[in-house]
Sequence to fold (264 residues):
Amino acid sequence: MLLSFPHMHPVLFPAERVPGLLFFDPGMTEIPLQDGFRPEDMPLDHRTAAALIRDCIHFGEQFKDPGEMAYFGAMTPDDFYEGSPSSIQAQIMSRFAESEGGRQGRGEAMARAQFIMLLAWFFEEKALELQGLEEGVKASWRSMDATLGLDDEDRIDERVLALGNAHSHTGGVSDGQVPDLPWRRMIEALPTLLPEEVTLLCVEPAIISAWEDAGIVFDLADPESGLPQGARKATQPAWRFAGHRKPPRSMPDTARQLTVAVIG
Fold:
């Protein structure tokens, strides 16, 4: 199985589509997504997933100073839950409260991993909404220009020209660019959720460069492997792809080997 990384929406994949490429589906919707891969045993159903995201947004809205939110980002997950007035932890724990023994610990790890992927998926959703809003603003300006019979040569007044150049600024995504996803957190979470036979495919130059700077060597893939021509791949413990110097004790699944293919 070939799975896109880090993008989870096909429309955001920044290269020509690869035949057979799937996109991780974290379970936010009742019906599995087209061209998506949704693990069968994820603990959070779509209703709980939506409730968790709403709770997270409400929690974030309590911060007026971004520095306060950054403080929480530097804390461990347990510290975050303990210090948060939200019910995120309680909702996650309720999904496997009836589990027994080792299954309960495994369920917790899977729920936390799924929660990370849900946040990343929602982040992409908001980016797509902002893109749509920006396109709407651009279309409105083009329509007004056409109505007035204006083009850039007609805009002699510098203030008008500056306004025209800034007409698409909506405070979010600009010119089709998508903000960086928290890909290190995502690749920490994925080993808990993915079957053994998955190969991740990344075409993002910045991420590939970060891996190579960390000493990960990608070898040319076998032409018969089913990967696109010129693809390179490497198999390493997930913690190395996440940028750690050693396996984090709190995330034992990051010791699992991941195969990552890259193009570019």
